[in-house]
Automatic annotation (TrEMBL):
Catalytic activity: 4-CDP-2-C-methyl-D-erythritol + ATP = 4-CDP-2-C-methyl-D-erythritol 2-phosphate + ADP + H(+)
Superkingdom classification of source: Bacteria
EC number: 2.7.1.148
PANTHER family: 4-DIPHOSPHOCYTIDYL-2-C-METHYL-D-ERYTHRITOL KINASE, CHLOROPLASTIC (PTHR43527:SF2)
Domain GHMP kinase N-terminal: 79-156
Name the record gives this protein: 4-diphosphocytidyl-2-C-methyl-D-erythritol kinase
Transmembrane segments: none
Pfam families: GHMP_kinases_C, GHMP_kinases_N
Length: 295
């Protein structure tokens, strides 16, 4: 993430992500699952602004730019942004305040990591704004406490493999820039509900995906697309099946659900191709359609 000075404050673009693979390894005693997943960061995202609050208060304003796609977000400690700010103050022994504004574009319950990215942006921005000078390792530790995907966004890399709950991050160097079309149906799914419905397995798609990305081989990337959560998500939401089926008719073999859903995506090497596909999908009124690319 790039922090930009704006007067006495900071602004930052908070990206989203897709999961090119998501292999569910086993259930853990703490209620989570061990996974292997390949994250890809997307240009599509939210914007946040941070300014010093003289009275040391923490405040959050949310401006909905989703066109009503998301339900109103809380602006108190239920929001990951506020949780991240409070955790940072606690661990740094800091009582500084901040006025935070979020321009929300990434829909919630979509499998795109919007909330996790917002939390990561908050850790990075307030560490700078408050002159705390905490290292990336300290911020990554806090990120892991906030959520499984937050550490990926703190890393700031375009592609990475996530292990453990997803918080153990290792960068994947790749020359590929993928063009992406996203379709978010009207309904959302709770990640917890989807994970409770999944049966762990033993697959090798993540290993194959890493190799494909490292070699810049688009065909290998396509052949390794896999999400162990897609089948249970389709049982819980018929809209996921409907959207993926429509997208497969446009780009066969290049479609997958992201994370725990409900967003489905298709990948291409061609911006023109995804733009044409996006227009045809909009005409089918399957949900909100976005065109973006990996970072």
């Amino acid at each position: 993430m790039v922090l930009r000075r704006d007067g006495g404050g900071l602004t930052v673009r908070s990206p989203s992500k897709i999961n090119l693979t998501l292999d569910i390894r086993k259930r853990r005693s703490d209620g989570f699952h061990d996974i292997e997943t390949v994250f890809a960061a997307l240009e599509f995202g939210d914007d946040l602004a941070f300014a010093i609050e003289p009275d040391n208060a923490l405040t959050l304003r949310v401006r909905d730019c989703t066109g009503g796609l998301s339900t109103p977000l809380p602006v108190d400690s239920r929001n990951l942004i506020m949780q991240a700010a409070e955790l940072l103050r606690e661990r740094a022994g800091c009582r500084s305040g901040a006025a935070i504004t979020l321009w929300k574009r990434v829909p919630v319950e979509a499998g795109l990591g919007g909330g996790s990215a917002n939390a990561a942006a908050t850790l990075l921005a307030l560490n700078n704004l408050w002159s705390l000078n905490l290292g990336r390792d300290r911020l990554t530790e806090m990120a892991a406490e906030l959520g499984s995907d937050v550490a990926f966004f703190v890393s700031g890399v375009p592609y990475a493999v996530g292990r453990g709950r997803g918080e153990e991050i290792e960068q994947i160097p790749s020359p590929l820039r993928l063009q992406v079309v996203l379709v978010k149906p009207a309904s959302g799914l709770s990640a917890g509900a989807v994970y409770r419905a999944v049966e762990p397995g033993d697959t090798e798609e993540t290993t194959r995906m890493i190799r494909g990305l490292e070699h810049g081989d688009f065909a290998d990337v396509v052949s390794a697309l896999s999400n162990g959560l897609q089948e249970p998500a389709q049982r819980l939401s018929s809209e996921v099946s409907k959207v993926c089926d429509a997208m497969r008719r446009e780009l066969p073999g290049r479609v997958l659900m992201s994370g725990s859903g409900t967003t489905c995506f298709a990948i291409s090497r061609s911006k023109r191709e995804v733009s044409r596909v996006a227009e045809r999908l909009r005409q089918q009124r399957l949900g909100h359609v976005f065109v973006t690319h990996t970072l």
